[in-house]
């Protein structure tokens, strides 16, 4: 018993040393304040569970511990043949990927409690919000000269810029995010997908003629620049005209005109441009960001996540430029083993599949708080939800976020945050949030 205890202390001490080195390496600070032994053992428990989870669910992927409790390396079997080449330098994609569990836990938790839709109150609240931020969201923005004429700028954004968030955290219970991978045609997921409370799709993904595989329901659609330019075509993909279209890049100069004149009846919004600093790129992770910010649980379909799948076609067309598929697969596996998403694919087609060795809620919670402290996130480990706000602004009277007929979970969250809306801030404002609070 005594030796065990001593062993633990030594392990913790060396772990602390490793983390200290890591922290000084990344932030130039001198020491870690408020990180306790409990925090370190929480991170240790997380990493132990995480490795087992990846082994049990990753179809050949292995997680190996790195230089401290936050770092893990996800490795593919050595006989994996990478096929994707970086067009910039012609290099083949590697077989191992370094991921930071602490950063992922803290960052995705922040996503879950924030608004990810761009609003007018957000731009108004930022110092130089119009001059520095708004005009960059409009294609040919340079002609607008930093929104010198704010009226003109507001006009361009008016139809896609709500005053307050149209959606709130936990608004939906079970959500499905549908990627465009060709392997969707291998399984009839359609009925299953239609059983979710909200379904998220991407770009020009068709529904008609493919419902057996991809379902009919479509609640949100995230658009890149190319799809946004063809907004009228995209709006035709969903017959209900209720699908919410969310543009993740800049809007076209003539977007408002197009919405008014075509006319496009679907609600259209912009995704908040702030990067949460996660290492994930592309439309897929952005759609997950949106889904996790308004859903209790998120399941994914149609992402290329099975070993041996290297056709990289879309389910509706032959060609595809696909990028970093092995990195993507590793990143999604990490998300699954952190309890953020559940993966469905031809090789994981059993709807009732259990994610084995998923670290339990208490481990995830303790490790998340420890991560926030390590990363010096504003409000780490504090009970007051507003302690994460590095900027607090009172919301204009009479302007209230969406809130009719909300689910109990969403209402409870609103109570927890005392009616505040939290928006992520760019890194140069620190790691905190902008909070719009009731007057
Ligand atoms: C600013 O833009 C508005 C709307 O297009 C226009 O009516 C107004 O004349 C512009 N003001 C200036 C000073 O250019
Ligand atoms: C579905 O198939 C029909 C008949 O082949 C075709 O006319 C239609 O354009 C297809 N729809 C989509 C969205 O591809
Ligand atoms: C979570 O897992 C840890 C370690 O496996 C265990 O000690 C703890 O009792 C579990 N907590 C719950 C609530 O199941
Ligand atoms: C996010 O909100 C939940 C309540 O819905 C709360 O338990 C959790 O601590 C919050 N996370 C952060 C980082 O504020």
Quick synopsis:
Among the domains are: 2-111 and 358-374, no CATH class; 172-343, sialyltransferase cstii, chain A, CATH 3.90.1480.
Structural class: alpha/beta
> What hetero molecules are bound to the protein chains?
2-acetamido-2-deoxy-beta-D-glucopyranose
Unreliable sequence segments: 1-31
Radius of gyration: 22 Å
Numbering strands along the chain, what is their spatial order in the largest sheet?
Answer: 8-7-6-5-4-9-10
Given the C-alpha coordinates, what overall shape results? globular
N- to C-terminal distance? 56 Å
Find the count of extended strands (DSSP E, 2+ residues): 13
- What is the N-to-C order of secondary-structure elements (H for helix, E for strand)? HHEEEHHHHEHEHEHHEHEHEHEHEHEE
Indicate the CATH architecture of the domain at 172-343.
Alpha-Beta Complex
CATH class wording of the domain at 172-343: Alpha Beta
CATH topology-level name of the domain at 172-343: sialyltransferase cstii, chain A
Total helical segments:
15
The overall pLDDT, averaged over residues, is: 86
Q: How much strand content do the residues show?
A: 5-15%
Instruction: Determine the fraction of residues in helical runs and give it as a percent range.
Output: 25-40%
Describe the sheet with the most strands.
7 strands, parallel
CATH superfamily of the domain at 172-343: Glycosyl transferase family 29
């Amino acid at each position: 018993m005594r030796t065990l205890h001593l062993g633990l202390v030594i392990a913790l001490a060396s772990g602390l040393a490793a983390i200290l080195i890591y922290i000084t390496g990344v932030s130039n600070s001198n020491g870690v304040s408020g990180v306790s032994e409990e925090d370190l053992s929480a991170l240790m428990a997380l990493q132990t569970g995480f490795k087992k989870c990846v082994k049990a669910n990753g179809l050949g992927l292995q997680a190996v511990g790195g230089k401290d409790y936050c770092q893990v390396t996800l490795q593919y079997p050595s006989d994996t043949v990478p096929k994707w080449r970086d067009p910039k330098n012609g290099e083949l994609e590697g077989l191992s990927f370094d991921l930071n569990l602490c950063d992922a836990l803290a960052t995705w938790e922040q996503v879950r409690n924030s608004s990810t839709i761009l609003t007018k109150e957000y731009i108004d609240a930022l110092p130089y919000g119009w001059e520095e931020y708004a005009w960059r969201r409009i294609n040919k923005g340079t002609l607008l000269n930093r929104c010198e004429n704010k009226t003109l700028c507001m006009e361009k954004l008016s139809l896609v810029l709500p005053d307050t968030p149209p959606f709130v955290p936990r608004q939906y219970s079970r959500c499905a995010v549908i990627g465009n991978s060709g392997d969707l045609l291998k399984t009839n997921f359609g009925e299953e997908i239609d059983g979710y409370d909200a379904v998220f799709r991407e770009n020009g993904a068709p529904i008609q003629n493919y419902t057996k595989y991809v379902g009919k329901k479509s609640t949100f659609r995230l658009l890149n620049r190319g799809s946004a330019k063809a907004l009228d075509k995209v709006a035709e993909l969903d017959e209900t005209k209720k699908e919410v279209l969310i543009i993740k890049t800049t809007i076209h100069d003539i977007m408002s005109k197009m919405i008014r004149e075509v006319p496009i009846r679907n609600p259209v919004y912009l995704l908040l441009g702030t990067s949460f600093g996660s290492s994930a790129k592309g439309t897929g992770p952005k759609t997950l960001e949106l889904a996790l910010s308004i859903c209790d649980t998120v399941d994914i379909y149609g992402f290329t996540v099975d070993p041996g799948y290297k056709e990289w076609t879309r389910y509706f067309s032959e060609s595809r430029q696909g990028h970093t598929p092995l990195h993507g697969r590793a990143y999604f596996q990490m998300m699954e083993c952190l309890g953020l998403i559940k993966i469905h694919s031809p090789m994981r087609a059993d709807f009732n599949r259990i994610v084995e060795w998923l670290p339990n809620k208490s481990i995830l919670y303790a490790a998340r708080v420890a991560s926030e402290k390590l990363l010096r996130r504003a409000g780490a480990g504090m009970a007051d939800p507003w302690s994460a706000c590095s900027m607090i602004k009172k919301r204009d009277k009479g302007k209230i976020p969406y809130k009719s007929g909300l689910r109990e979970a969403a209402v409870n969250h609103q109570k927890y945050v005392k009616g505040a809306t939290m928006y992520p801030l760019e890194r140069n404002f620190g790691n905190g949030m902008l909070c719009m609070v009731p007057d």
